Amino acid sequence: MVDINVKYRLHAAENTQRLLNQAMHNEAHALGERQVKLASLHFTKVTMFMNTVITRKSVQALLCLSAVAGALFLGGTGQAWAHAHPVQESPAPKSVVTAPNEVRIVYDDPLEPAFSHLNVLTLQGKQVNQAKSSVEGHAHKTMLVALPTLSAGQYQVRWVAVATDGHRTQGHYTFTVK
Fold this sequence. Notes:
Layout: H1 2-31, E1 41-43, E2 48-50, H2 56-74, E3 86-90, E4 96-97, E5 102-107, E6 117-122, E7 134-136, E8 142-146, E9 153-162, E10 168-177
Parallel strand pairs: 4-10
Antiparallel strand pairs: 1-2, 3-5, 5-8, 6-9, 7-8, 9-10
């Protein structure tokens, strides 16, 4: 468990470093003759060191980048770039269908199979799937669960998707069996 968390944190730090490098590069081009010079950008576990030529615009850019970096590290951005979100659900939300033999959800980002799952429940909260959900395919973007024969009624699909970089999303929707 510790090794997986370290892997995800290192990957997130690398992504954050890449984003900050791009933002500083863009800011340097925008300032032109102000000669913003990025001397170094190094990450440690907690601290980030940056050397720049100080101008009013570079101070504003540094403050803006610090706010973005803080939001990324603290998770305060609401929706991060690497969250896995459904792009196709079968049965579809709010659909009326004949009894399906499985529920399948395709996501926009690869999933971590060990931490992602989905269940189908009655509206009273009783789980109807007896099988454990699985993530399939080379891209790890499809999660599915086999279903027993469902009787007529409404059912709720509840899912938790953990992207391969560790970001977690969850959701639910209903469908009706006629």
